[in-house]
Amino acid sequence: MRFQTYWVLVVLTLLAGCVNQNKTATLEDLYTRDVKLPDGSKFRAEVVTSKFDMSRGMMFRDKLDSDRGMLFIHGEPGLFPYWMYQVRIPLDLIWMDQNRLITQIVPNAEPCKSESAAKCPQYGGSRRSLFVLELNAGMAEKHKLKLGDRLDF
After folding, report:
1. Residues 43 and 67: beta-carbon distance below 8 Å
2. Which single residue of 12, 82, 83, 119 could bond 114 by disulfide (Cβ 3.0 to 4.6 Å)?
């Protein structure tokens, strides 16, 4: 009987540790994370890891809130050019290496107006990276981001 009581107490203790009394968890918590810039500014970024979601990215969206972004996490470092096919808003594209240091910035990438994906230009991807962050156009300049800066997420 003591053995059963012990395990019940262990399970209850573990469950109690899983409860956050200050905030109710939401689906957004599961699919987003905070990204902190060197100047202390924070953006809430959608996290994208699957090839399908990466190919879709910011397509078909009419706006992006000023405190939001999209963070692409590639499986391993590589060269990852991006394009703006069927993206409706201009974006800043920020590549980072495995240490989260900025390796490349493409400011104000304009949406591609072509009906053909093959006619859309590719941006960046000329330096090895693991992460790519998309923010509204102008954010990289506003927050004075530069090569070698570290982003925290």
Report:
1. yes
2. 119
